[in-house]
Amino acid sequence: MNQSPSLNPVQNDLPSCVINCAVYDQHGKRRDITLDEISDVLAVEDGTFIWVGLYEPADSVLEKLQEEFCLHDLAVEDAQNAHQRPKLEAYGNSLFIVMQTAQVVDDRIRYGETHAFLGPRYLVTVRHGASLSYAPVRERVQREPDLLGLGPSYGLYAVLDFIVDNYRPIVDEFRQTLDTLEKDIFADTYRRVTVVKLYELKRELTKMRLAVAPLQDVLAQLSRTQSPLIPEEVRLYFRDVHDHALRVNESTDTLREMLTTALSVNLSLVTLAQGETVKRLGAWAALLAAPTLITSWYGMNFEHMPELAGRFSYPLLMVGVAAVCIGLYRLFKRVRWL
């Protein structure tokens, strides 16, 4: 799910890439507006702020918003091009935040990006790639008008909290998958598919860590910043999200270590199993080699071999071969080669 259907007639006048464009007053009451009305709202200092939500916007829409909100050229350029690492940049009296999102699509994890512009009276979120709609976020904060009255920074907190919360079920799914693979890891027989699954799981966890670890730095900066864009009351909420991200990152690191151990254990067990097989083959080869050596010795075509003329040479040879084989068999049994 990438976009939300428009429920308000005003939304029908917006480009398709504009998912939400609304103004919130000091009491958290929402009113939908068009892009052309943004300048009229900002012209009146009445404590309201604007929240614009975009999904893979056209360059013309970003240029329009740059003109309305006086966004920095470098920030707009980053928002036009995805493939940015999580970061926090300050441009004058505005902040530009990059976050990576994760979403399960067709049983695989797809990663996207959300870019956020935070100003004194506006919040602009730009989504790229695999990303859930932030409509539930807006619905949640609208049920908390007192907190929404803190300004656009509270909307930014809600978006970040939503992103981090979406990481947790993915990590839990990784943990369940690893638990399922444990019985295959300790199986007596080697299965290539088990190693492939373990590798794929570790690769996905590495990608997850690359998304979560830098986000911790962003959240730490937001929770400690002295910028007037983020009131002290909102910094407490950012600290809470930072704690959630820290736990997700720790869980990811723990699972990666467990996967590394699982791969090593699986390789060791396979090596031990192969060693046992080689020992058994070697023992049976020795049992066959002893009579072969003895019989080949007496199978040489020499005329003067004293043992050939004896009356009991053949029975004695058979008894000797049997004794050697039995002795070797008992020896290999004692050392657990058979």
Uncertain spans: 1-7
Structural class: alpha+beta
Strand order across the largest sheet: 2-1-3-7-6-5-4
Q: What is the count of helical runs?
A: 9
Most strands sheet: 7 strands, mixed
Mean pLDDT: 82
Oligomeric grouping of the chains: single chain
H/E series: EEHEHHEEEEHHHHHH
Bin the helical content: 55-70%
Taking the alpha carbons of the first and last residues, their distance comes to 60 Å
Query: How much of the polypeptide forms β-strand, as a percent range?
Result: 15-25%
The value of Rg in angstroms is: 35 Å
The general outline is rod-shaped
Strand tally: 7
Summarize the structure.
By secondary structure, the protein is of the alpha+beta class. Helices cover 57% and strands 16% of the residues.
Secondary-structure blueprint:
Blueprint: E1 18-24, E2 30-32, H1 38-42, E3 49-55, H2 59-69, H3 73-80, E4 87-91, E5 94-105, E6 108-119, E7 122-129, H4 135-142, H5 145-148, H6 152-185, H7 192-224, H8 232-298, H9 313-334
Parallel strand pairs: 3-7
Antiparallel strand pairs: 1-2, 1-3, 4-5, 5-6, 6-7
Helix pairs in contact: 2-3, 4-6, 6-7, 6-8, 7-8, 8-9
What does the model show?
Helix 8 runs antiparallel to helix 9 (313-334). The chain has nine helices and seven strands. It has helices at 38-42, 59-69, 73-80, 135-142, 145-148, 152-185, 192-224, 232-298, 313-334; strands at 18-24, 30-32, 49-55, 87-91, 94-105, 108-119, 122-129. It has 338 residues and is an alpha+beta fold. Mean pLDDT is 82; it is low at 1-7. The protein has a seven-stranded mixed β-sheet with strand order 2-1-3-7-6-5-4, with helices on both faces. It is rod-shaped. 28% of the residues are buried.
